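so i finally got all the pieces together for this one. its two components total, 189 residues if u count the protein bits. some of the lines might not be protein, just check the labels. i wanna see the whole assembly predicted at once instead of chain by chain like last time, that was a mess tbh
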Amino acid sequence: MRPHLPEIRRLGADLAIIGSGDPASAKAFQEDLEIRDVPVFSDEPRRAYELAGFCRGLLPLLRPRAVGNYLRAFFSGHRAGRKQGDALQQGGVLVVRRDGGLLFRFASRASGDHPDAASILEALRAGEEPRICGIPSEGDKPRRVRRL
Amino acid sequence: MDRVSREFGEVEVKDVDGRPRRLKESWAERTCVLVFVRQFG
């Protein structure tokens, strides 16, 4: 997402990152990625993840797509460091307007799932038109997460 | 259009200095792309 930050800002939006690790981990993450101008927040209770309907459990780690994602990252030179947060929690992306309108939602179904950045930028350009990807949103109701 | 719930906006998170913040502050002034990562590592 970082390479797209200038375009995100040019479109009048901003970026924030939320993780399930503690604030010290969040700070180290911010410093390691040299993104001091991007707010990074810690949600250790994972309440925001739960309300956003993001998956948690073993299955997302074991899906074939997750294995493929790991291998692709590994052979690209990415090496996982010490984990900072809940290893079973999957992430996602929300694009929220000032009035709380949800322009875009993506929920990872397997480890390593990421939305196409172009889709996010398209949603920002569209502005008024919502675009929901990944697991469909059910409005304000969080999805039930099957725990393994 | 779907909207995030009030409850979601009121979720308390902590910034990198450990200060409590409400999630809704992130989109208070402009549209915000919220990226939820699995872990910080």
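Residues 53 and 142 of chain A are 5 Å apart (CA to CA).
DSSP finds six helices and five strands in chain A.
anyway lmk what u think
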